[in-house]
Automatic annotation (TrEMBL):
One family name in Pfam for this protein: p450
Single annotated GO MF: heme binding
GO biological process: brassinosteroid biosynthetic process; brassinosteroid homeostasis; gibberellin biosynthetic process; sterol metabolic process
Protein name (Swiss-Prot/TrEMBL): Ent-kaurenoic acid oxidase 1
Gene: KAO1_1
Cofactor(s) needed for function: heme
Amino acid sequence: MSSWWGAGEVVVVLGVVGLVIIWIVKRVNWWIYEAGLGEMQYSLPPGNLGLPFIGNMWSFLSAFKSHDPDSFLRSYVSRYGKTGIYKALMFGKPSVIVTTPETCKLVLTDDDAFKPGWPDSTMELIGRKSFIGISQEEHKRLRRLTAAPVNGHEALSVYIPYIEQNVVSALDKWATMGQFEFLTHLRKLTFRIIMYIFLSSESAPVMEALEREYTSLNYGVRAMAINLPGFVYHRALKARKNLVAILQSIVDDRRNQMKVLTKKKDMMDALLDVEDENGRKLSDQEIIDVLLMYLNAGHESSGHIMMWATILLQEHPEFLQKAKREQNEILKKRPATQKGLTLKEVREMEFLSKVIDETLRLITFSLTVFREAKRDLSINGFIVPKGWKVLAWFRSVHLDPEIYSNPYEFNPSRWDNLVAKAGTFLPFGAGSRLCPGNDLAKLEISIFLHYFLLNYEVERVNPGCSLMYLPHSRPKDNCLAVIKSRPSSVLGA
């Protein structure tokens, strides 16, 4: 009998020890991040900081690797109510997630209260002198100096012929290829376009090296920051080092050329030449980090949105026909002597602009941006401690049924009489740090869709293919498809 009680006691003790360990594990993050806040801890937003070190990343990754990525935020709403603000441990840092137009607008526009808060791993790859990491004053200066070379009316007009040339050539080639990965080739197209805008005179081998290294870098932006051989992030850091070396060589060559040549050819020349009111020019590191950031923004987002807009139009014939009619009307109004698109024509594509906006809303290419509280703050009656990260969760805003009826439905006509209220439409962010390449990105997308709608159609090989949501929403087969040319006589039929 005594031996039986001995075994039972062992079981009980082990059970108690197990419960104590579980309790301790669940409290570790509280001890590290909340206990030292004193009374403020009781005014934190609802939520939890999850497991030690891992935090809430396991549930985040599980949701975004499933067929229902929005289950991550939905679990917070079901457990803590629709407060629009929740605490979590994300990307290794205590964080507050804001999910409503009002809170997102506040976080994105109040530069006195918030500063950039991107993970260190992201900053190491994109660059600490890029737009996403520099101080507010440096950001204003850099934006002022680069605005004209990127989004200015003259610059955009100059870029149009080259974008057209590449789009027409690519579509013509794709129509002869049979089955191919539509997204993969769109990304190659947008990379080629953006690289020409930056570096028009560089050789094909240099461009190929840049694309190869950039692809490796981009894979690491959303990967776990494990800097050990064999891991994606380690390869990405090596790719950045190689990219910087290539770009530094180009910068050096261009500086030497500018001593004898005065005519600017591309954005690199413009960035080397521009100076502020005090005569201060951009440093080599600023130029390189700006170029890498534009590569990320102007190449990735444009390629994905081109694919999704094309697919979604193909799946909705009524919108497809309306978009085609608009493009045909542009051709009918064009003088016989005019060759190619003008910026004025692009800006007259009212329905196509709605198609692009609806695609940006539905897909939400960037699901969140990162900020950091500069001081202890109050949002919706909750305290956000100084130094905590604040994640403006765009996806929850764009897919909120109280803002957009039937939010998962592709409906460009919803924009006919809709003026988006502040904070409800955030594809490029908001405030002073609004994506600086937004006009260039929309120009690329508009030109591609113009020529596609006039002359081609797409047929997906696996229309029911499941999706991946990280780092961006895409079919798992990269949209395996066939592009077919359409006789011009049936356009808009």
